[in-house]
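Dissemination and training. As part of the outreach component of the grant, students in the summer workshop were shown how a complex can be specified as a set of sequence lines and then modelled as a single object. The example used during the hands-on session is reproduced here so that future cohorts can follow it. Participants entered these lines:
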Amino acid sequence: MNNGIKSILEAVQSGSMSVADALLKIKEEPFEDIGYAKVDLHRKLRQGAAEVIYGAGKTPEQIIGILDVMRKNGQDTVLITRMGEEAADIVKSVHELDYHKDAGIGIVGKMPLPDGIGNVLVATGGTSDIPVAEEAAITAQALGSNVVRLYDVGVAGLHRTLAHLDEIMSASVIIAIAGMEGALASVIGGLADCPVIAVPTSVGYGASFHGVSALLSMLNSCASGVSVVNIDNGFGAGYLANMINHIRS
Amino acid sequence: MNNGIKSILEAVQSGSMSVADALLKIKEEPFEDIGYAKVDLHRKLRQGAAEVIYGAGKTPEQIIGILDVMRKNGQDTVLITRMGEEAADIVKSVHELDYHKDAGIGIVGKMPLPDGIGNVLVATGGTSDIPVAEEAAITAQALGSNVVRLYDVGVAGLHRTLAHLDEIMSASVIIAIAGMEGALASVIGGLADCPVIAVPTSVGYGASFHGVSALLSMLNSCASGVSVVNIDNGFGAGYLANMINHIRS
Amino acid sequence: MNNGIKSILEAVQSGSMSVADALLKIKEEPFEDIGYAKVDLHRKLRQGAAEVIYGAGKTPEQIIGILDVMRKNGQDTVLITRMGEEAADIVKSVHELDYHKDAGIGIVGKMPLPDGIGNVLVATGGTSDIPVAEEAAITAQALGSNVVRLYDVGVAGLHRTLAHLDEIMSASVIIAIAGMEGALASVIGGLADCPVIAVPTSVGYGASFHGVSALLSMLNSCASGVSVVNIDNGFGAGYLANMINHIRS
Amino acid sequence: MNNGIKSILEAVQSGSMSVADALLKIKEEPFEDIGYAKVDLHRKLRQGAAEVIYGAGKTPEQIIGILDVMRKNGQDTVLITRMGEEAADIVKSVHELDYHKDAGIGIVGKMPLPDGIGNVLVATGGTSDIPVAEEAAITAQALGSNVVRLYDVGVAGLHRTLAHLDEIMSASVIIAIAGMEGALASVIGGLADCPVIAVPTSVGYGASFHGVSALLSMLNSCASGVSVVNIDNGFGAGYLANMINHIRS
Amino acid sequence: MNNGIKSILEAVQSGSMSVADALLKIKEEPFEDIGYAKVDLHRKLRQGAAEVIYGAGKTPEQIIGILDVMRKNGQDTVLITRMGEEAADIVKSVHELDYHKDAGIGIVGKMPLPDGIGNVLVATGGTSDIPVAEEAAITAQALGSNVVRLYDVGVAGLHRTLAHLDEIMSASVIIAIAGMEGALASVIGGLADCPVIAVPTSVGYGASFHGVSALLSMLNSCASGVSVVNIDNGFGAGYLANMINHIRS
Amino acid sequence: MNNGIKSILEAVQSGSMSVADALLKIKEEPFEDIGYAKVDLHRKLRQGAAEVIYGAGKTPEQIIGILDVMRKNGQDTVLITRMGEEAADIVKSVHELDYHKDAGIGIVGKMPLPDGIGNVLVATGGTSDIPVAEEAAITAQALGSNVVRLYDVGVAGLHRTLAHLDEIMSASVIIAIAGMEGALASVIGGLADCPVIAVPTSVGYGASFHGVSALLSMLNSCASGVSVVNIDNGFGAGYLANMINHIRS
Amino acid sequence: MNNGIKSILEAVQSGSMSVADALLKIKEEPFEDIGYAKVDLHRKLRQGAAEVIYGAGKTPEQIIGILDVMRKNGQDTVLITRMGEEAADIVKSVHELDYHKDAGIGIVGKMPLPDGIGNVLVATGGTSDIPVAEEAAITAQALGSNVVRLYDVGVAGLHRTLAHLDEIMSASVIIAIAGMEGALASVIGGLADCPVIAVPTSVGYGASFHGVSALLSMLNSCASGVSVVNIDNGFGAGYLANMINHIRS
Amino acid sequence: MNNGIKSILEAVQSGSMSVADALLKIKEEPFEDIGYAKVDLHRKLRQGAAEVIYGAGKTPEQIIGILDVMRKNGQDTVLITRMGEEAADIVKSVHELDYHKDAGIGIVGKMPLPDGIGNVLVATGGTSDIPVAEEAAITAQALGSNVVRLYDVGVAGLHRTLAHLDEIMSASVIIAIAGMEGALASVIGGLADCPVIAVPTSVGYGASFHGVSALLSMLNSCASGVSVVNIDNGFGAGYLANMINHIRS
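and obtained this result:
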């Protein structure tokens, strides 16, 4: 945005833009206001290749409206997260949508070719964590990362984890997803030599407190290189993993 | 106590005891009231070989008073837990006391020979968990178990855990002690084939919440055969481990 | 697993196995990957007589798939926990299933004869705790323990507890199950002379906080020999009780 | 106060009081403002025989100042709670004070003769709960109740509780004081046939969370007739017990 | 129960009962075991005039079964709490039941004439607290107390509370029921000169946390003579109020 | 009310009112008791131009009943909050009702002309916060304030906030509404020079804990001039904003 | 700041400022960086008459350093909050400081004459809340408000509150400060017709949880017009009260 | 470790190592057991350039002992975190130690030249967050990253943040450190286009709950690319930032 201010200032200085226009431009350009939402249009330049619509709490109509604005403004790929199957069906009637039911993600536009530094490994402790894992995996893929999946490798069956040491040790970034006691992040964090993004899931019962147990466990990991995102936040983990996988000076 | 009631009833029936005396006997026999405490005297028969004084919140004088009653009633070995060094010095002036500073435990009387089914393994995640571990280990020893110590084998350095597979797989009962994320219980629980008593410790900072993170993690362990005692409750774990190690039909 | 590594090493040394094959074997042998799950096949040798499928969050089809692999690999008895009646009906159409509705447990294969050290006593504070109790009881039975049931003996009617002193004092392991204030574990722990596994239940309302009150109460039990499993975790208690009941050197 | 309004209204009607005076009287009469406190003077008529000063967070000088106003206005007995030994010494230099160190209570004026309906029984689970119990006991005594003490009868040694069934069953009100798992309230509540005021104490460690475990346990008591006051609130329990012990139509 | 033991002992001594029979009697007499419940039969003598069935989590059939046992054993009045309308309809087909929909309470047998010391006042902060209030009121009535209702007198409209000073100041026991900030207990506790039983309700939203806000507020009441029962526990408050209203030496 | 007492006193003094009548008047005047509610009638004089019915937990019939009393007593405008669409339809059949579905608010009577000191700005972090915002906005309008809406200006797109600096800096009061991390309040509080009322919303998932995260964030705002109302309490914020906007000496 | 950007743009357009200088100006002007702090210099224009230094966690030397910068830049009055007596003594040796020990506030420069719309009333529930009240009161005074103090008017002695109805009903803004159950805010909110800023204090013990009980109580106040600041945040309340007291279009 | 197993297997196959030696080697090689700790020796190869000693809860003697082992095994640079000044003085007497008091970090050996992909930006919300920031900054430097510091740029003074847009937008990784409401992470996350590691600090009071408020705020950040480490965990953030800054395929 700084660059934006600078270029506007230069336009004012050169006389090609009036002060009033400049002030207006600063205010109005970066998004389009469609009532129920202010749609970012320049985020693509600032934050990544695909634009994202957080679908939770939005009607299919609102999603379509935001999609319209984005596509109209030249956005190639749009990711819609937390979208149910019914909403997906309605959106499909207007936009070409590739819907991933497990992950609750829809994609408009084509998936990019992976161009990251290395692989993003997505690991889960159990079978029930797979929906969160798919949200993470597809997000990272849609943003340009190659993804390796490693599901149901919880620490109570340590041999299953150890059997995949190759994948663990050759990843550039790892997303460790687990509910219950969330120990997977620490075990993988101790084995791996790359950043581990821990995702606590709400899988469990009783004193798992809908993911709080796993969350605390992961925040207190004794392994270095582990950081944590919100409970069930597969999207956040996938976004961050891809960002790390494209790090630049 | 049932047996007690039965034998009293039989004495009443045989005429060797009056009803009033019987009722009195039921009320007065099993403990001696010394004002600040009601000292159990028959617990030895009921609950184990050594009697225990929970030292926290008791003055050295109170501890000595309770010791007096116990010893007078023929209790061979008495364990005093959560006793500071100063209190130990005062008690030492009256009773022969073997004080273990790390564990905060004093022992009056001789240690029994181990007569349990197998070994009790006491494992810790880190160095800071050692005081809790020693409380557990000495308790189990004082009650008649052979104890194997395995300290600083936290899951972030998994090879250290794996290097001791022999000890882990040959124990009869394991006490897994860890703070922070408490993942040790799950990892050991997944490797071992015996009961694992998990002890969360208050070691850690921030979101470890004085042991709550480890406690929740252990309660949610995905490994079978794991149960949990209170935060920092080394004594409880040692007592239970020894009890399991002496299980009988 | 250590033994596994050792025998593989010996096979390599004797020339009967190549290094590449050995590495492959270590990685692939102990489980079969069927996509949505990595099914442990050697657990029987490591952790007990019956194999367990945690049914919560698995579709009947997934349960059947895992059953297929287990049975194919020679597993005699399989316990499926947390399985609803509808799922049970579907599984029944493929495998011979003995379904216990109260407990939410299905059993494929025959129940073993009890061969434990003694009896496992399962006690509940109230009527509402019975489903959790049945989960514990049937689990222990399916794994080889004789089980005695003692339901609705909550501490507010202490005479009901005392009336069963015989059963309490002659058990080898006790599972004490209660919601609300969870005092049952302490009262039984004070009477009994064997390990007590406390199971808090989510029975109650208001400040019981779905089992938290009972959980805290049990963790803070002033009775020795008490340990705790997760809220409503009847399976875990039954598994552990049976393990203690088969303790070996 | 209603009566007060009524009598003021009557005075106004009879002409013996002006409207302005009446309004003034309503505002100014019931307390004396000494800057740091507004001392209630008519509470004696409204709420009980002795007046109480909550000593916590008050300087000895402030306590003396409030005492001066109370005594000057004819208050015979004044209870000062939560007062340390040093403060008591300073107050003693001005007022005749009977200080109970264990309870942290000082009494100015003479203790009343007990004139309640029956006895108030004060029971504790352990030795460490005694200070809270003494706060309760002395408060009830100072307000006019006969008190029976029953200390260290925790539920882990149930025979100790049962040995005192006579006292429990003959009390008019019972104060049950316990930390840790707080099961005492339920056990006594199940045995007794009178109101039980449960006082959770902050005695314990780890997951007792400074009395929260006992508090929740007591709030969820399955015994009828149990109500709860704040953690460590011996005064509140003693005050209420005495009030119940003097109930009137 | 003490008396029970004593009379059994006397029977043994007199030869009218054998030891074995005595032991049997202690165990079997005080309740009847009907599988899903152990029905107390002597509670009437011990704890009050009407017997109570806690209906939550019991099927209509179970309720009918327990009712059968109670009525067969001569229990005149039975209160069934937390019973929905459908269950009530089924019970009605077997037993004559007076069902109070608001309170969720059914009564079998006739209501006793009030014979308490004075009146029980039941006050609520708002309209939404009425169901809890009715549970309390009808319970107290069914157990023998005269009840005065005072609904919707929350502290934000203080004049409404003050308008009823007469009722507040002439009650023998007050039940103060409120959700949200629960200030009603303190305000009434400050005005009244009798025990106040505070009942927090789960009425509210957001940071009321389903009654936790009101619960904490009431536990911390600065008014003396206030004690607290569980969130929404109208029954407990009514039971205790009636007990206080019948206090005896 | 003070004035009320004074004028009643004067009437008594002048002989135009008897003491009994005066006491009665104090008790009965300010509200009308219609069984399920005590309807305030003089609140209009005391607290604002429109009267409010909190609709949550009231049946349409109860709402209509309260409306009847209010309208009969001359209340021009009545706001009904937290009313669902179905209830609104029923109320509409009796009273002329302007229903705002988004806000869940119905208005009987005409909206007042804005007469506040300045504008009330209502800002939200996201689209999902709009219902709470509308509740706030319509409340403030119904009570006499001009409202400016500024939706979806969350801090992750700071340029959207900055683009509206004019509105932010020219408001008299700002209502900042946000879920998730609730940072909007701090950012706006740092930019604005007027009171900011922060409303945490329950929008979010996982560790947002139904609004607790936003609530804590807002309570800890490092910006001065920020205060907080309950989670999702749009009405409270609108009411307070309007009150501030009409502040008087 | 918007105005700032606009004027800079105009300077650029008019040629009186280069683009580079403009960009530099936007970045560097509003604060002075003294290493450990970035001191705002233009806040006076934006946010109020006096500048504030939050003293907690700052050394006396750092406070002096920031004071130096502020005074050098023409700031007349500076408030230093949360400053201990020792720090105040050191600051006094360099700057003329008026230190209020109770409030922990120091003032450099002269107090402004009150120029607000009306009075700010500061009320406390008890004596222990006075330090927080003084922090609020002196802050409001230093920023230009007339303050009326009303201490120790807690709801358990309601007549004390009612005796001051005049002050309560004639205030423009009220700050209600209370610990324990925090009911003061609701009672005053119900009586007053102006904004009430509620300040929970950490006064209390046990289940007051260091102010959480009062905080929740205040957030759930059933009185309209009440908002809440952080626990013990007297400064924040005083600042906001003064801001409301100077509201402008 | 997989490679380790493979090379050992090859050695066994080639006959250069016996099976018993191989098993021994797997167990004993990777660490040295010095009683109170098991010192990792090969971590350097696995996890980074410098080895780290977590100083909290270790005596200076233990730190020296571990240092001895590490240095003896060829470790060039060792970082000791959470070490007080006194401990540092003792360690200095044996090893050449560069002690950073603010950060509580000591470094033995020389600092490496930065060789990361880009810059690590360390930003704090306030002055009190600086110790945590220094822990992060020095850790990242000691592990090979160039670090840019940006302190006291909290969101309440947004212009201070915006003034540093250049640094924010040109970083490769950002560490955002804040207490209180923790909004800094979201604001920076919204502006930056690189991974943001959020560190909540325990700075604050009241409802900040020792960092919980900031922690929740950061976990719920609406900005993408943000992950969180434990409260006050500057080391963890610095370690991870450096790891990301050295990402490789």
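Residues 31-109 of chain E form one domain. Students were then asked to discuss how this feature might be tested experimentally.
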